[in-house]
Amino acid sequence: MGNYYLDIETSGLKEKTDQIITIQFQELERNTGLAVGPLRILKAWESSEKRILEEFLEESQITGSNEWAFIPTGFNLNFEHKFLRERTKTNGLPEIDILTRPFVDLRAFALLMNRGEFKGSGLDKITNKPTNGKLIPEWFKNKEYDKIVDYIESEAKAFVEWNAWLYKEMPGFLKKFKQECNIK
Predict the structure, then answer these.
(1) How far is CA 91 from the centre of its chain?
(2) What's phi and psi for 128, nearest 5 deg?
(3) DSSP H helical segments within the chain, as ranges?
(4) For 61-144, where are the alpha helices, taking DSSP H only?
(5) Domains (range + CATH), the chain
(6) What share of the chain in percent tops pLDDT 70?
(7) Beta 40-43 vs 20-28: how paired, if at all?
(8) Which pTM value belongs to this model?
(9) How high is the mean pLDDT of the chain?
(10) Strand pairing of 40-43 and 71-74?
(11) What are the distances in angstroms from CA 62 to CA 2, 53, 99, 112, 146?
């Protein structure tokens, strides 16, 4: 079973007209949630959207018969799902549908940690991630690729730190819940 941090950056928010400009993924240790491999960043500005989708399909085997080989772990994976599904279809590639296979989306944890409030539950609000990604399309348009890479690296680091913290702390919450509710 392979858990992988997964995220993308896009040229905008509309999956039918905007493009995926990066796909980043990193293997995570199953029992700790820590990164065990390097962060892989596929960059469309070095080739094309179609080529980075092809590379991702090949490297991840995400559409293969073993649905446990690449388990996406991310934040608000519905965004990645919509873009990956639409952009593979647009580029004539096998469709990536990450929400019908095993996946782990930490968005719900952020929401619960923020007392059920959506406002203030973004990854940049609950971790050391310095900002949200709203400047990515502008940086891409201006060919400020180094800023995009710096953003991706800081986001991945913040996500993995939080993910590992959840792996460490959540079993204690389960134990406490079972004790308080008299569950055996």
Answers:
(1) 21
(2) -85, 10
(3) 49-60, 77-90, 107-113, 123-126, 136-141, 145-180
(4) 77-90, 107-113, 123-126, 136-141
(5) 3-180 (3.30.420.10)
(6) 99
(7) antiparallel
(8) 0.94
(9) 95
(10) unpaired
(11) 11, 11, 11, 29, 28
* C-alpha to C-alpha distances, 28 to 38, 68, 86, 114, 117, nearest whole angstrom: 10, 13, 26, 25, 28
DSSP conformation class of 96: P
Q: What is the pLDDT of residues 1-51, one digit of tens each?
A: 589 999 999 999 999 999 999 999 999 999 999 999 999 999 999 999 999
The pLDDT value recorded for residue 91 is 98
Closest CA to 142 of 25, 16, 47, 11: 11
What's the CA gap between 49 and 157, in Å, rounded? 24
> 19: number of CA atoms within 13 Å, CB side?
14
Give CA–CA dist 58/52, Å, rounded. Answer: 10
Contact (Cβ atoms closer than 8 angstroms) between residue 42 and residue 22: yes
